[in-house]
Amino acid sequence: MLEEDRIKIYSEEYVDGIIEYNISSEEIEQFDTTAMNIIDNKYAVIYYSAEKVKKEITSLIGYSIIPKLFGLVDMTSLDELGVVKIQNIPYLGLRGQDILLGFVDTGIDYTNPLFRNSDNSTRIVSIWDQSIPNTKATEDTFFYGTEYSRKQINEALKMKNPYSIVPSKDEIGHGTTLAGLAGGNRMTESDFSGVLPAAEFVVVKLKPAKRALKEYFRVPEEAIAYQENDIMFGLRYLFNAARKLKKPIAICIGLGSNQGSHDGREALADSIARLSNQVGTCITAAGGNEGNSGHHYYGEIDKTKGFNTVELKVGEKDTGFTMELWGNTPGTYSIDILSPTGQYIPRIPARLNEHREVKFLFENTIINIDFLLVESQSGDQLILMRFKNVAPGIWRFNVYSGIISSGFHIWLPMRNFISDETFFLNPNTYTTITNPGNALYAITVTPYDPVNQSLYNFASRGYSRTDYVKPEMAAPGVNVYSPQPGNTFAPQSGSSIAAALTTGVTGMLLEWGIVRGNDRGMDTSQAKKYLVRGVKRNPNLTYPNREWGYGILDIYGTFMSLRGEDI
Predict the structure, then answer these.
(1) What is the mean pLDDT of residues 493-506?
(2) Tell me, what's the pLDDT at 274?
(3) DSSP conformation class of 430
(4) With contact defined as beta carbons under 8 Å apart, do 251 and 283 qualify?
(5) Fewest 10 Å CB contacts: which of 116, 164, 277, 293?
(6) Residue 443, in any domain of the structure
(7) How far apart are CA 338 and CA 336, in angstroms?
(8) 3-state secondary structure (DSSP) of residue 104
(9) What angle separates helix 267-276 from helix 228-245, to the nearest 10 degrees?
(10) Taking Cα atoms as reference points, which of 512, 529, 513 lies closest to residue 93?
(11) The Peptidase S8/S53 domain covers which part of the protein (predicted)?
């Protein structure tokens, strides 16, 4: 990649697009591929003028090409997980020897003692900080960001000002928390230990999403958001690092989004699926905290009326946002709109790749509507609505279907991208797993409270839009004693907390299976099956179910099941 092209990776004058570059030459000609940055053998990123974003790029180049925006899905007990029991068995004692823990998140506080050895050297193999530009970046870091090696980190730790050597910081703290829970060193003075205190770390700090993309999706400027393509690059970096070191890696994804088809067929989900099938790789994803947010609606057409009425309450704080309607095949859908002051927009027929800009006189509101009858990745219909200067109050949408109706879903943005004042008046709490938690092969976890054995109040619920079992299991995620930047601790809750602890547990399986030779072909799918064998279940519930998946994670139960005992 030429140096003038690398500038486009960071420049706000260009926006990223995700393409499948191995498609036919006729299709690829519609894109400017002179600055193409390859992720893997299927996907690549192109960079096009941000001026196109001000136009209707959904209709021009397709919804699937636009990187979706992901946010943090939340702002313990090892006994509960069965970890302590396993580590106290002399023959097992799985503490992460020769295991890598990988994170694509907000970075890591590398100065924290949690991530050091007893001789004060670092346990971090490398940090790829995408947010620090580097004109000399090589293909190892996909021509952007700055990579810091173990050697550089160790040199920094000896300095009075370590950031003069390695300036990478976790200003938000989310990545530090997850890494500490999965593999922090035991700290007796704080009575804290991560799941795998002997493991090493590979860390990706994501660069913030570009302003033009946030504006297009109406995401607030102050919201923490990351681009789908940067996450994909990050996952590939972790995988490549593990292959170079010839070590297994357990990867944690503590990010989420309500954008996309929620069926595991988006570009990021596809990348996760292909990496998950690689031996020595386990990927765990947070299920999200959208269960009671009121951000999901499911409806079927009332045959007596010929439509279904959706009521949306918009709060004062939300001047702009997006809303996605996904129709299940083979149904096709169209809408009409009634504003809070009573202005009525008659039924807008669904036509192939049609764009409409609807203006409301008294509300001063503009809604850009894109109809994609056959969205390229899912094959299902998408109606993308982008609200600008949206007036507060009750908005009503009548949803109509063609001859065949097979149900439809509507999602508002996830928490942190929209306030709690905007929600559906008759929401559906199910099918609220955030992406990439719907990725078919990832291990998706939901948080529960080990004190009272209840599901976290905000926990997202399954299944996927195509009724694939998500989440697969529950893990502790309520008031978990968690590390923070600056060597402090505080109780935290959320699905990413559960995902971090589960990541540590999958690392135990990788150590037992690959490092110790008990199952040298272990990948994410195999690890998932081992974990499902050992879950704890409530005798009053039927499994799998939409709240708990197959049950509560218990690694001790997994190993007991391998003995063939009735547990």
Answers:
(1) 96
(2) 94
(3) S
(4) yes
(5) 164
(6) yes
(7) 7
(8) strand
(9) 10
(10) 512
(11) 96-293, 428-551
Instruction: Specify if 187 maps to a domain.
Output: yes
- Tally of structural domains, the chain: 2
The angle subtended at Cα 323 by Cα 261 and Cα 21, nearest 5°, is 45
**Assigned token pair, 19:** 């393409």
Q: Judge whether residue 329 has pLDDT over 80.
A: yes
Q: Which domain holds residue 416?
A: 296-424
Q: Are 287 and 300 within one domain?
A: no
Give the whole-angstrom CA distance, residue 72 versus residue 104: 11
pTM for this prediction: 0.94
Cβ atoms of residues 62 and 40 within 8 Å: no
Q: Tally the residues of the chain.
A: 567
| Tokens encoding 277 | 């099938």
Under 8 Å between Cβ of 499 and 250: no
Contact 497, 79 (CB under 8 A): no
> Cis (ω within 30 of 0) for the bond into 463?
yes
Phi, psi (rounded to 5 degrees) for 478? -125, 120
Q: Considering the domain boundaries, does residue 110 fall inside one?
A: yes
- Which of 223, 183, 282, 297 has its CA nearest to residue 70? 223
CA separation (Å) from 463 to 264, 407, 425, 431, 449?
A: 11, 15, 22, 5, 21
- Decide: 507 and 251 in contact? Cβ < 8 Å: no
Q: Which residue has the tokens 């530090």?
A: 176
Give residue 193's pLDDT: 84
Same domain, 286 and 307: no
Active site residues per annotation: 105, 174, 496
CB 375 within 8 A of CB 63: yes
Buried b or exposed e, range 475-488, using 16+ CB within 10 angstroms: bbbbbbebbbbeee
Task: Say yes or no to pLDDT of 557 above 60.
Answer: yes
Segment (H or E) for 49: strand 43-49
Peptide bond into 544 cis (omega under 30): yes
| Separation of first and last alpha carbons in the chain | 57
pLDDT at 439 over 80: yes
pLDDT reported for residue 153 = 98
Unique residue bearing structure tokens 């850009």? 368
Nearest to 147 by CA among 126, 122, 123: 126
Rounded to whole angstroms, how far apart are CA atoms 497 and 284? Answer: 11
Q: How would you write 171-191 as a 3-class SS string?
A: CCCHHHHHHHHHHCCCECCCC
- The C-alpha atoms of residue 73 and residue 414 are separated, in whole angstroms, by 8
- 99 and 163: one domain? yes
Same structural domain, 472 and 367:
no
Q: How many CB atoms lie within 10 A of CB 160?
A: 5
CA distance 278 to 264: 18
Over residues 154-179, the mean pLDDT reads 96
Residue 520, pLDDT score: 95
- CB contact at 8 A, 366 and 357: yes
C-alpha 335/C-alpha 320 separation (Å) is 20
Q: Under 8 Å CB-to-CB from 182, ≥6 apart: which residues? A: 101, 103, 194, 195, 196, 199, 250, 252, 500, 501, 503, 504, 507
Quote the pLDDT of residue 21: 82
User: By the 8 A CB rule, do 510 and 200 touch?
Assistant: no
